[in-house]
Amino acid sequence: MDPYAALRYKEFNTFLLVRFAMVFAWSMQFIVIEWQVYSLTKNPLSLGIIGLMEVIPAVSMALFAGHIVDQKEKRNLLIKCILGFSVISFGLFVISMPSVIAQTTTETILYSTYFLVFLGGIVRAFLGPTIFSLIALIVPKKIYPNAATWSSTTWQMASVLGPALAGFSISWIGVHWSMCVIFGFSLFALITLLQISKKPILNPKIGEPVFKSLKEGLNFVFKTKAILGALTLDMIAVLFGGAVALLPIFAQDILHVGSQGFGILRAAPAVGAAIMMLSSTHFPLHKYAGKKLLLAVFAFGICIIIFGLSTSFWISVAALFFSGAVDGVSMIIRQTILQLKTPDHMRGRVASVNSMFVGSSNELGAFESGATAKLMGAVTAVVFGGTMTLITVGATAILNPRFRKLDLTKDIEEHEKEA
To answer: Residue ranges of the Major facilitator superfamily (MFS) profile domain (predicted)?
Structure first.
C-alpha cells in the first residue's frame, strides 16, 4: 500500500492541520495547568484531581455525545467543540493574570481552574467521536488504515511539541502568556476547519430514541470481540501505567531538573510514539495484530517500571521515550481495529465507548497515580502501576486466545474490494 495514500486528499491534509493545532493546544494547556496547580499546592493529590475533574464529565457525557455525533453534521459539530475549547482557554488566560492572582485567594484560583477543566471534559466528550467520524467522511474506505496511522501520528507529533513548548514557555514567558499561546492555537484550528466542506449524515436512523441508540452502540462494542479486547487491554494499561501524571513530582522533587527538564520528560513519550508511527506507514502493523498489541503493552509496563526506579534524568527520559514508542504501536493497532470493524452509521457511538475505555482512563490513571503517590510515595506508585500492566497483559493472553490470534489482513482486503 502507498504509505502516503491519505495525504493525497486535500481535505485530509487540512484535517491534519486542525487536529495538530487542537492536540497541541490541549496538551500544552494540560501541562501548564499541572505545573500551576502543583506550584500552588505542592500536593500530589491535586494533580490527580485535575484528571478527575476532566474524566467525570467526559465519561458521564460520552454515550450521549456519541448519539449526538451520529445524528449531526460532523464539520459544524467540530466547529462548536473548538469554540468551546477556545472559551475555556481564554478563561484560564484571565485567571492566570498576575493582577487577578494578586487579588484572589489560592483556593479561588484552584477551584476556578478545576471548574474550567471540568468544562473541558464536556467538550472532550464530543470532540473525540466527532474527529473519529469525520475522518471516515474525508477519505475512502480502502485507505482507512493509512489515514488512521497519519491521524495518530499527527496526534503524537502535537503531543511532542505541546508539552515541550509548555515546559519552555513556563520558564521563558510564564504561565499567563503560555495560556495566551494556547488560545491562539485554538483560533488557528477554528479558522483552518472552515476550509473543510460540510459532510453528509450517513445514519439512516435520524431521530432514533436516545436510549435505543445507546443500547445499539453498546451491544455492538461488546459483541465485537476484537474491539472489546483492544479497548479493555489499553484501558487497564493506561489506567495503571499513568506515570506521566506524576512528572511534576519527579521533575521538581526527585530528578531536580526544573521546568525545562519537566518539558523534556513530558515530551519524551510522544517523541517515541511519533517516530514509531512514522515508521509504521512503511511497515503496516495489521498482520498478527493481536500478538503485536499484547507485546507492545507488555513492553510499556517494563518501561514504566524502569522510569519509576530511575534516579538518572537521562535514563528516565529514555524509559519514557521507549514507553511512547511501544504505546504508539498500541494506538495504531487499536485505531485500525476501530476504523475497520465499525459501520459508518455507528462511528460516533463506538468512538464514545472508546473514549470511555481508553481516553478517560488517562484521567482516571492520573487520579489513581496521584492517590497512590499520596499513600505510598511517587516511586512506589509508578512501579506498582507498571507491575499491574504486566499482570493485565499476561491475563489477557491466557484468558483470550482468540484475541491473541487476531489478524486484520482479511478486513483490509475486503475494504479494498468494496472500494
So the answer is: 1-404
